[in-house]
User: What shape does this take?
Amino acid sequence: MSTNPQVILHPKKQETFWDGHPWVLRSSIVSPTHELHTGNVVDLVLPDGSFVARGLYHASSRIAVRLYSWNANDQLDENFFAKRLQSALELRDKVTPFSASQGRRLVFSEGDLLSGLIIDQYGDYIIVQQTAAAIAAFVPTWIEQLKQTFSPAGILFRIDEKTAAAEDISVSDSMVHGALPSAPIRIRENDVSIEVDLAGGQKTGYYLDQRDNRIAASKYASGRTLDMFCYTGGFGLTFRRHAPRVTDIQAVDSSERALSQAQHHLEINQLASIDYVKADGFDHLKQLADQKEQFDTIVLDPPRLVSSRSQLDSGLRAYFRLNSLAIQMLRHGGTLITCSCSGRVSRDDFRHMLLKASRRHGRGLQVLEQRGAAADHPTLLACPETDYLKCFICRLP
Assistant: This one.
């Protein structure tokens, strides 16, 4: 019989957790049966003591318990979590085999049943991002496991500011093995060279999740092209390499640093020119629409617009505004590649928003492909938030 402290689940909340959702919000529990500290192993139980799942407790976070097993015989110890990491690594060997010139996600948090842990690999370097305080005791074991498995040149450990604030821990950005490379790491994605700044890049360095969507979209891209929120150039660069029917490209981002990197990528790949424009995406799109500009291909890949349930309505209005403007400027027969990386926005939400945006202009849209993140970002059915990336490739007939 388990001797773990118990956290009592409110009876009306139990259905979600029988299905396997890994987050137990503080509002979903009645009370713990002991005084608990962040990182304690706890059993989630019903008021009658029936076992539901086992997880790690956080004393102050909105997510009170992160669940890792629904088997009462599992012990959440170093051996358990080492096996869980090994399972994730074995999956990557199948879906994204290692290449010294490739970037891939090794662990995708809840998608790999390792809530609070993200691990990316760029050639000989690995970045470990901790997004939950409760897993801190197991991070050294995972780092040692990564060293033994990959013999990497370096491992960078990172806790970002947002995580630190939400989880009541300190920001961290330190090499825990080897040395930080003196120059950006160069990887190849879809036959395009990309340089990743491990020290100063976005999150763990680069948006690996759009890898497959970029090459898929290139099959449809043609003519005059607008690439909104282009960051370091992913879609536009892929089009230049793989979409010969594309003529001129205007790529827009609000970050001067990102645009400078995009221009650098263009040059090292010796690709045809792209017009990079520094501007606020919403304002620039409105200006183009007011000028009655027309495009054959438009990419909308904005940053996350919905971070919490309370932001859903305002976020959907923002997506509506972007897509409405894009549809207004799209020529007949043109292609719209429209994305959302907001986990709180469901596929149905996004589809309905697109329908309203097309209705506004009396223009129907054909959906050619509904895509998500690359296969090294697996979706856990019990956790809809892992299906965070939506990429709809549409045609205006």
